[in-house]
């Protein structure tokens, strides 16, 4: 499938929307709820068994996904802002809460992502941060953007340990 050409058209996520998907251990989509299907612009059939990166927007810095995977693989929940690319080239912002779900015997069942709308102030703050991180990683690599992300957190009196709570706070 060809990658959509990004446009400046934003698709609004309303305050009652809850966009849910599940994936296997590699991030391939195994479930997409109706609102996920609707906002992405893809059909259920186009989404299932495809990697979540089908939604990857070129404005997203790699370091966010590195941080996501480093943590969820260890069973730690991550709350992070994501700008996603729709089939029509438009985009939508979400605050995603991603976690590993386990079977009763403790083995891996799937990853679950639950996404909500993002406030205009958080879009502004995070949009500017992600633009900086993207530039840094294009010029100096992901390690440098990871350091820049750590600096951003420190400037706000935060660290990777308080990442999730801080991201939630920013959305108020
Ligand atoms: C449950 C789950 C949900 C995800 N949701 C998204 C998403 O909405 N958008 C996105 O770009 N990546 C999402 N990812 C991350 C992708 O797997 C991938 O790391 C990311 O798109 C970067 O792709 P790339 O490494 O091929 O550049 C999700 C991963 C998991 C496990």
Structural write-up:
The N and C termini lie far apart (37 Å). The chain has a single domain (19-170), classed as PAS domain (Beta-Lactamase, 2-Layer Sandwich), CATH 3.30.450.20. 38% of the residues lie in helices and 22% in strands. It has a five-stranded antiparallel β-sheet with strand order 2-1-5-4-3. It is globular and about 45 Å long. A hairpin with a 5-residue loop joins strand 4 (91-102) and strand 5. It is of the alpha+beta class and 172 residues long. Bound molecules: flavin mononucleotide. Flavin mononucleotide binds at residues 21, 23, 27, 51-53, 55-56, 60, 65, 82, 84, 98, 111, 113.
Helix-strand blueprint:
Elements: E1 19-23, E2 29-32, H1 34-40, H2 44-47, H3 62-72, E3 78-85, E4 91-102, E5 108-116, H4 120-140, H5 142-155, H6 163-170
Antiparallel strand pairs: 1-2, 1-5, 3-4, 4-5
Helix pairs in contact: 4-5
The structure holds flavin mononucleotide (FMN).
Flavin mononucleotide binds next to strand 1, strand 3 and strand 5.
